[in-house]
Structure prediction request, 298 residues.
Amino acid sequence: MQRLPEIKATYDWFFAHYQGETADRASNNDIAGIEQMDVKRDILERGIFVLMFGQFEKAVTSAFEDALNARATNPDWSRRRGWDASSLRGKKVPFETKLAMVLDSHSPSFAQIIDTYATRNHCAHGGTTNAVGSIDAIEAKLYRWHGELRR
Amino acid sequence: MNDELDNTEERAQTLISKDSVEARIEDWKSRLRTLYRQVSDWGLKNGWTVDNSGTVEMYEELMQKFDVPATEQPTLRLDGEQGYILFKPKGLWVIGANGRIDLYTSKGTFIIVDLAERGTPAQWTIFRATEKRDGDRFTPEMLASLV
Prediction:
């Protein structure tokens, strides 16, 4: 997740400006004024969420490819078993399949990641206007999930 | 888009009904009321003026989809010599949490989210109050350091 810190730093820069812009409105209890600012914040946070999750997707692909390359060429069939299937080759392997090869699909994190991936797809394709809970919380989750991947 | 994930989303949607959306709104408002009561008690004990008469509209995507009318969610305002504190609910159906409140104070802007699983007691967690990546468990007492 090489670029995650850079993406998060960009968000922090935005948030500092948002804070400055909303300070007077909050001080004056101008809820409608804050809501106006939040339209921009919501859109930007959805974009940041998609970019951040993209870094996790790259990490899953990397872990999957490492695992695949290490096992698919093993001369011992008991270790190569299944990993040399042609459906695991190429760029069209579904994210869920890649994830299942590097993370226990029965783990709570697996279900959370797949749910988050579905939301990410809806965000990326304009399918939701829901706000992001907390970019900081999502960052923490991504690092935690990343630590659970096995090569 | 990935059909497999569309199906996942559709499966989730079929479990949702107008009744369940209304029940979740009621639960959200109840969690807000409980939190505000705790904050108000702390504020009054510490010399703050408390105003819980404000509201902000709630009309989220799922409400529109299931024809649930717009409603009001309460805000909470505290004023004192030290500055101001404003709790403004952002929404219930937010990505990655079971509801979010934006907290504006004379010192800055903070984010409070409920990270508990649905149907379990609220686990209010505040972000940006400290450097901790996982946030901090929110307590009214910590407001003293956020103004």
The CA atoms of residues 71 and 80 of chain A lie 5 Å apart. DSSP finds six helices and no strands in chain A. The first helix of chain A runs from residue 4 to 27. Residues 46-148 of chain A form one domain.
